[in-house]
UniProtKB/TrEMBL annotation, chain A:
CDD domains: TM_PBP2 (cd06261). This is Amino acid ABC transporter permease. It is found in: Cell inner membrane; Cell membrane. Residues 73-266 form the ABC transmembrane type-1 domain. The lineage of its organism: Bacteria, Pseudomonadati, Pseudomonadota, Alphaproteobacteria, Hyphomicrobiales. PROSITE patterns: ABC_TM1.
UniProtKB/TrEMBL annotation, chain B:
SUPFAM superfamilies: P-loop containing nucleoside triphosphate hydrolases. The keyword Nucleotide-binding applies. It is found in: Cell membrane. It comes from the Bacteria. Belongs to the ABC transporter superfamily. CDD domains: ABC_HisP_GlnQ. InterPro entries: AAA+_ATPase (IPR003593), ABC_ATPase_HisP-typ (IPR030679), ABC_transporter-like_ATP-bd (IPR003439), ABC_transporter-like_CS (IPR017871), MetN_ABC_transporter-like (IPR050086), P-loop_NTPase (IPR027417). It is a peripheral membrane protein. PANTHER family: AMINO ACID IMPORT ATP-BINDING PROTEIN, GLUTAMATE_ASPARTATE IMPORT ATP-BINDING PROTEIN GLTL. Residues 16-250 form the ABC transporter domain. Its main location: membrane. This is Amino acid ABC transporter ATP-binding protein.
Length: 281, 254
C-alpha cells in the first residue's frame, strides 16, 4: 500500500479498491479433469503413505493394473462404437420408415421407436442377454455369440430408437417449401429425401447424434452387470485381487471415472461448439 | 369464360386449360369454379386481392394442390385424373416461388443442373453447358459457384428461374415471384421474365406488379374470393373495367 522508495506516500493510505471483473466461465478442459483426478489419486496415495503399511500404495496399484484396466476401457469404447454404428444404420432406416407414406409401415416404425425410446437401457440389456442364445447355427455353421456381442446389440436398440427420432425431427425441420420446389422439378419422393432433404439435415443431426454417443459410451459400464469384462468389471476384480482393501476403493473407481470423463467431456464440448456454430447460420 | 379469346391471337388449342375448377380446404372453398385458357407463347397475368385464391389456382396446375372438382388439362395431361403421372406433368411445367426455395446445400450452378441430371437422366457435361448458358441468360455469369445464402434475393430468384428453365418446360408458372424482393431488385427479376416472354415462353404469372402486367401480359385475369371477376387484354382491362370490384381494386393499386 505504501511505497517508501520515492519518499512520497509514506503514510498508510487506503487506496480506492478497484474491482477487477472476473470473467470466470465454469468451463472445464480435459487437463482440468486430469489434474483433478491426479490430485485425488495422489491425495489418496499420500494419505495411505502416512499410514505406513507394508502393502502397495494405491498409486502403485493403479500403475500396476493400468494396462489391464485400460484394455477394459478400450473394450467399453469398442462396444460403444459398434453399438453406435449398428444403432445409427438401423435408426436411419427406422426414422425414414416413420416418414414413409405407407400408413402400416409408418405406424409400425413409430411404435418400435416409442417402445425402445421409453424402455430403460438396463432392462433392454437384460432382455437381449437372456433372450438371445449364446450361439446361433446358420447353415450348419455354429456362430458363437459372446456376451459382449449381445451387450453391443442390447445397447444398439435404444440408440436405434433415439437416432430414428433425431432423423424424424431433422427431416421435419426442413421447410415444406423445399419439398414443394423439388416436387415441381419432378424429383421422386426418394430422390427428394436422399438428394435434397437429408443432406440438409446432416448438420442439424450431428450434435444430437454425438450427444447420443456420449450417453452410450457412459452406459456401456452397465454391461458389467451382465458379466461382460469391461472396465468396471475389471476394476472390481482388481480391487478383489488386491485384497479388497477399503482405501483402494476410491482410487480405483476414481481412475475409471477419470477415464470416462477424459473420453466424454471433449465430445460434449465439441457437440456444444457445433451446436453454437450451426445456430448462427 | 373459356374460349372467349379475341381473334387477334387465336392459334391452336390451349396449352393449359382450366374448366370449372373448384378447390376446398376443409369447409373453406377457395376456388369456386375457375375457367381459363393459356395458349402457346402467351403471357397470362392473374391479379387480385390477397386471399383470393391466386396462389392455390397456380399450384393446382402442377398438382402441388389437388383440385376438388373440375378439369385441368396441360398439354393433353389430365391433371385432376387420380391416376395422374405427376412426374410427367411436372417435367412440362416449371414453377418459380415467392421465396425462391433454392437448395441451400448446393451452389447456384448445381441447383440449375440437379433436375436435368437426376430427373431427366441427361448427360452431365451437356447439362453443365446448358446451365452455364442459362446463368448467363439470367445475368448471373460469375455467380455459378456461389451458394444461395451468398446471393441477394433478386439473384436467388433468377437462379430459381434458371433452375426451372433447365428442365425445358412448356409452361412456366410464377407465384408472386417479386413479392419478397426489395423494390430495386424487383426490376432485375421482371426484366428476366420479360425476356423469357419475348423468347416465346408460355407464362402464367400471379403478380402484384400492375405496370409489368400491363406491359407484358397478353391477357389479364382478375380474381376475387375464388372466382374470376373479369378478364381481358391489358388495353381494355386497365381502362375499361366493367365490374365494380375490379374498378375498386385497380383504383387502390394503380
Amino acid at each position: 500500500m505504501s511505497d517508501r522508495s520515492d519518499g512520497r506516500d509514506v503514510l498508510p493510505v487506503l487506496h480506492p479498491f478497484r474491482v477487477v471483473p472476473t470473467r470466470f466461465a465454469p468451463r472445464l478442459r480435459g487437463r482440468h479433469g486430469l489434474l483433478l483426478g491426479l490430485g485425488a489419486v495422489l491425495a489418496a496415495g499420500s494419505a495411505w503413505a502416512q499410514a505406513g503399511a507394508p502393502q502397495l500404495s494405491p498409486l502403485a496399484v493403479i500403475v500396476k493394473w493400468a494396462p489391464l484396466l485400460l484394455t477394459g476401457f478400450a473394450f467399453n469404447i469398442a462396444i460403444s462404437l459398434l453399438a453406435m454404428l449398428i444403432g445409427t444404420v438401423a435408426g436411419v432406416g427406422l426414422g425414414l420408415a416413420i416418414l414413409s407414406e405407407q400408413p402400416v409401415l409408418r405406424r409400425a416404425a413409430w411404435a418400435v421407436t416409442q417402445f425402445f425410446r421409453n424402455a430403460p437401457w438396463l432392462v433392454l440389456l437384460f432382455f437381449v442377454m437372456f433372450l438371445v442364445p449364446f450361439q446361433v447355427t446358420v447353415l450348419g455353421l455354429r456362430i458363437p455369440l459372446p456376451d459382449w456381442v449381445k451387450a453391443t446389440f442390447g445397447f444398439s436398440l435404444p440408440v436405434m430408437a433415439n437416432v430414428a427420432e433425431v432423423v424424424r425431427g431433422a427431416v421435419r425441420s426442413v421447410p415444406a417449401t423445399q419439398w414443394e420446389a423439388a416436387e415441381s422439378l419432378a424429383f421422386t419422393r426418394r430422390q427428394i429425401l436422399w438428394r435434397i432433404i437429408l443432406p440438409q439435415c446432416v448438420k442439424r443431426m450431428l450434435p444430437p447424434w454425438m450427444n447420443i454417443y456420449a450417453l452410450v459410451a457412459m452406459a456401456t459400464v452397465q454391461a458389467s452387470i451382465v458379466g461382460v469384462s469391461e472396465m468396471l468389471t475389471l476394476t472390481a476384480q482388481v480391487h478383489a485381487a488386491e485384497g479388497g482393501r477399503p482405501e483402494l476403493f476410491a482410487p480405483l473407481y476414481g481412475f475409471a471415472l477419470l477415464c470416462f470423463f477424459l473420453y466424454c467431456y471433449p465430445i460434449d464440448r465439441w457437440t456444444a461448439r457445433m451446436e453454437r456454430r450451426f445456430q448462427i447460420r | 369464360m373459356a374460349g372467349t379469346a379475341p381473334p387477334a391471337w387465336t392459334p391452336a388449342k390451349p396449352i393449359v386449360q382450366l374448366v370449372d375448377v373448384h378447390k376446398s380446404f376443409g369447409t373453406v372453398e377457395v376456388l369456386k369454379g375457375i375457367s381459363l385458357d393459356v395458349r402457346k407463347g402467351e403471357v397470362i397475368c392473374i391479379i387480385g386481392p390477397s386471399g383470393s385464391g391466386k396462389s392455390t389456382l397456380i399450384r393446382c396446375i402442377n398438382a402441388l394442390v389437388p383440385v376438388t372438382s373440375g378439369t385441368i388439362r396441360v398439354e393433353g395431361i389430365e391433371v385432376a385424373d387420380p391416376k395422374l403421372d405427376k412426374l410427367a406433368l411436372r417435367r412440362k411445367v416449371g414453377m418459380v416461388f415467392q421465396q425462391y426455395n433454392l437448395f441451400p446445400h448446393k451452389t447456384a450452378l448445381q441447383n440449375v443442373m440437379m433436375a436435368p441430371i437426376h430427373v431427366l437422366g441427361q448427360d452431365r457435361r451437356e447439362v453443365e453447358e446448358r446451365a452455364r448458358a442459362l446463368m448467363r441468360k439470367v445475368r448471373l455469369a460469375g455467380k455459378e459457384d456461389s451458394y444461395p445464402g451468398e446471393l441477394s434475393g433478386g439473384q436467388q430468384q433468377r437462379v430459381a428461374i434458371a433452375r426451372s428453365l433447365a428442365m425445358r418446360p412448356d409452361v412456366m408458372l410464377f407465384d408472386e415471384v417479386t413479392a419478397a424482393l426489395d423494390p430495386e431488385t424487383v426490376k432485375e427479376v421482371l426484366v428476366t421474365i420479360r425476356e423469357l416472354a419475348e423468347d416465346g415462353m408460355t407464362c402464367l404469372l400471379v403478380t402484384h406488379e400492375m405496370n409489368f402486367a400491363r406491359d407484358v401480359a397478353d391477357h389479364i385475369y382478375f380474381t376475387d374470393r375464388g372466382v374470376i371477376v373479369e378478364h381481358g387484354p391489358p388495353s381494355t382491362f386497365f381502362t375499361a373495367a366493367q365490374d365494380e370490384r375490379t374498378r375498386r381494386f385497380l383504383s387502390q393499386v394503380l
